[in-house]
Amino acid sequence: MEIVLLERVEKLGKIGDVVKVKPGYARNFLLPRGKALRANKQNLAKFEAERSAIEARNADAKKSAELLSESIGDLNVDIVRAASEMGQLYGSVTSRDISEAISKAGYEVEKRLVVMDAAIKTLGLFTIKLALHPEVSKKIVVNVARSLEEAKMQLDSGKAVITNLNEESQEETSQLTANIEVENNNDELRDDKDDTENVQ
Predict the structure, then answer these.
(1) What's the domain count of the chain?
(2) Which of 56, 62, 66, 98 is 20 to 30 A from 109 (CA-CA)?
(3) Gap between the Cα atoms of 130 and 132, Å rounded
(4) Do 63 and 104 share a domain, yes or no?
């Protein structure tokens, strides 16, 4: 299907380009979102008549997106979630969660602007892209941790605080070893006592 683009679309083209796309992509994404029109004679004439207004609107939207990107700066947002000892989340972090966290930080970013291949399902630091405008994108850091204290530790170290399992395991192992030694000593004392009784 041939369409005329009403805004820049990544890997397709810029405003006014007439391109061929799969019918499903046009019907399900480009046309309903107002990113393109079917490239028939009537629509092409309509586009040419409104071209300057469309380009002006796009320029305004781009400028607003650039200002937002600038004000966001090097943003990192903390999201607190319950997780297993191995760092697996009980649930997941979605574009909606990230959008809400950004809003709490003082910037209005709709969830549809948060670009994610899949939901986040583990603890850690994740670089997420915000598509603020077809020509303006911004990257932020999403810090998923069990608590705000752990989030700070993760940000400082640059890696996920999975668990203090190693320390706990060492303590448990030491305790277990101590218990086994005590039991062995008790067994030896009992054996000695039994030997003494048998001799008598």
Answers:
(1) 2
(2) 56
(3) 6
(4) no
